[in-house]
């Protein structure tokens, strides 16, 4: 008897992606560029976060025909986003056969109270988190992978650093905590889950970084801060040389702790290369920030 | 004894944990210097398209192939099986060509078909093995020198050709160490053989 959709196979796919880079793509041609550069998976989208941010309005699940054409174009796993709490969009993505569903704050939330109950799904989910409590709530709902949220489409790494540090520091603090019960209550998750984190010194699922990575050095920084892999959204296709940036960020992620390789990756971009334009997040009104969506 | 786990991408830490035992050290292998220090090598689960590119980019493909031809035991899991194979059915994907098999990628389907299956594998004893298949390949064709050790629905999923072992599934995700112990025996036998040759 073959048992599909188990916790082991859902979390397992995320484990297979470790040490890799997952790239946002909006066309099959982008997907092929990403695969050629060495991406471990692609996120199929209608618009990359920087453009979603610029366009405003309501951002929904991508056109399914587009998602399917990207699935046909590459052999690596394909992910797609649904709105927070929009379990019907998630059902459609599962039916279409994507390999991972991202319940994402980059899209306009559909439910201000509940996230999708992810446990009954066969397809694994990845969710964003700013801190340990948020990460554990998503895992308790069935997320098979966590990504620190950062601030998508900003080209600014500061939020990604804040969120990754917050998660890893809280895990360390738990090790010395006397009253785990009160921590569990405060984070609104079962004590069992908190004890699991203490026992392993890490989340029970893979932790990637997202939201703001735009250069090889950014990727190296986040890996050294404890990310097990990298999501790059706007950083590649908003640069002036997507092929070069994609490959350089992959190489820097693989050898994140070897400055020699990260230097080579950076030099490979050439003197005319420009990373995407970044945003000063202090100048963005709070209502336009993406990370606070879903808690 | 020191066993390496290729650490370019994939579930490296899981293999490192599972390989470790008294008198067996595990070493993540990222470059030729690391490779020179190991007596056997595991290619973990991950993305084969990605890892073939990285092996090429960081000049590890040829050094690994050379060590294996000289007798170093090699074990590939899932992605590792694809990397080791002679070729990939229906694709132009490059491989290391270290075992006379053709593999079909994602043979059991995409992620929604990923599954846990209990397999009877006599080389591992009477107790069935809890095999975890994730977007897994199967062996489409095997040469005469290849021994099939395990099958799922009539497709070879655990094969061995002399010092090279390949599994479609992920023993490192299960807590059952029997395939790791099997590979450690292969490495031990190779070391004993080498010492005899020198003597």
Compact summary:
Chain A has 295 residues and is an alpha/beta fold.
Shape of chain A: globular
> What is the overall number of helices of chain A?
13
Main sheet record of chain B: 7 strands, mixed
* Helix and strand pattern of chain B: EHEHEHHEHEEEEEEEEH
Total strands of chain B: the figure is 12
Q: Which bin fits the share of residues in helices of chain B?
A: 25-40%
Query: Can you count the helices of chain B?
Result: 6
- Estimate percent helicity of chain A: 40-55%
β-strand number of chain A: 9
Category by helix and strand content of chain A: alpha/beta
Radius of gyration of chain B: 16 Å
Tell me what the structure shows.
The complex is a heterodimer of chains A (295) and B (199). In chain A, 43% of the residues lie in helices and 13% in strands. Chain A has 295 residues and is of the alpha/beta class. In chain A, α2 packs parallel to α4 and α12 runs antiparallel to α13. Chain B is 30% helix and 30% strand. Chain B is built from six helices and twelve strands. The chains are: A alpha/beta (295), B alpha/beta (199). At the A-B interface, β1, α1 and α12 of A face α1, α3 and β7 of B. β1 of chain A pairs antiparallel with β7 of chain B, so a sheet runs across the interface.
List the helices and strands and how they pair.
The complex is a heterodimer of chains A (295) and B (199).
Chain A: E1 3-4, H1 7-16, E2 21-25, H2 28-37, E3 41-44, H3 49-55, H4 64-73, E4 78-83, H5 87-96, E5 100-104, E6 125-129, H6 132-140, E7 145-148, H7 158-176, H8 180-187, H9 191-200, E8 206-209, H10 216-224, E9 230-232, H11 234-237, H12 242-254, H13 259-267
Chain B: E1 2-6, H1 12-19, E2 25-29, H2 32-36, E3 40-43, H3 48-57, H4 61-69, E4 74-77, H5 79-84, E5 85-88, E6 99-104, E7 115-119, E8 129-133, E9 138-142, E10 147-152, E11 155-161, E12 164-167, H6 178-198
Parallel strand pairs in B: 1-2, 1-3, 3-4, 4-12, 5-6
Antiparallel strand pairs in B: 6-9, 7-8, 10-11, 11-12
């Amino acid at each position: 008897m073959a048992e599909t959709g188990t916790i082991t196979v859902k979390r397992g796919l995320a484990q297979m992606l470790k040490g890799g880079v997952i790239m946002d793509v909006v066309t099959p041609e982008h997907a092929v560029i990403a695969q050629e550069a060495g991406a471990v998976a692609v996120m199929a989208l209608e618009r990359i976060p920087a453009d979603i941010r610029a366009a405003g309005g309501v951002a929904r699940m991508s056109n399914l025909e587009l998602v399917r054409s990207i699935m046909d174009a590459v052999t690596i796993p394909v992910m797609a986003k649904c709105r927070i709490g929009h379990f019907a969009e998630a059902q459609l993505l599962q039916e279409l056969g994507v390999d991972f569903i991202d319940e994402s704050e980059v899209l306009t939330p559909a439910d201000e109270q509940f996230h999708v109950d992810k446990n009954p799904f066969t397809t694994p989910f990845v969710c964003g988190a700013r801190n340990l409590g948020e990460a554990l709530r998503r895992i308790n709902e069935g997320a098979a992978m966590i990504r620190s949220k950062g601030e998508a489409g900003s080209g600014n790494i500061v939020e990604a650093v804040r969120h990754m540090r917050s998660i890893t520091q809280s895990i360390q603090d738990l090790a010395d905590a006397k009253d785990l019960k009160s921590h569990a209550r405060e984070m609104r998750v079962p004590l069992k889950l908190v004890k699991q984190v203490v026992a392993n010194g890490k989340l029970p699922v893979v932790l990637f970084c997202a939201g703001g990575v735009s250069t090889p050095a950014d990727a190296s920084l986040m890996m050294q801060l404890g990310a097990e892999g990298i999501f790059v959204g706007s950083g590649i296709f908003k640069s002036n040389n997507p092929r070069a940036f994609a490959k350089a960020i992959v190489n820097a992620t693989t050898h994140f702790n070897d400055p020699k390789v990260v230097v080579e990756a950076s030099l490979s971009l050439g003197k005319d290369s420009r990373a995407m334009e970044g945003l000063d997040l202090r100048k963005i009104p709070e209502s336009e920030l993406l990370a606070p969506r879903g808690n | 004894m020191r066993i390496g786990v290729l650490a370019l991408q994939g579930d490296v830490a899981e293999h490192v944990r599972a390989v470790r035992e008294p008198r067996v050290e595990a070493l993540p292998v990222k470059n030729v210097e690391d490779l020179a220090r190991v007596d056997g090598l595991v290619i973990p689960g991950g993305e084969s398209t990605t890892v073939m590119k990285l092996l090429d980019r960081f000049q590890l493909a040829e050094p690994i192939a050379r060590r294996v031809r000289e007798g170093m035991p090699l074990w590939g899991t899932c992605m590792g099986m694809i990397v080791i194979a002679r070729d990939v059915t229906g694709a132009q994907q490059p491989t290391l060509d270290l075992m006379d098999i053709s593999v079909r990628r994602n043979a059991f389907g995409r992620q929604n078909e990923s599954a846990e299956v209990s397999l009877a594998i006599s080389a591992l004893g009477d107790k069935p093995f809890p095999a975890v298949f994730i977007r897994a390949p199967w062996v489409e064709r095997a040469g005469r020198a290849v021994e099939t050790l395990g099958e799922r629905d009539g497709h070879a999923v655990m094969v061995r050709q002399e010092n090279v072992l390949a599994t479609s599934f992920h023993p490192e995700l299960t807590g059952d160490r029997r395939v790791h112990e099997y590979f450690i025996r292969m490495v031990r036998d190779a070391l004993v053989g080498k010492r005899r040759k020198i003597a």
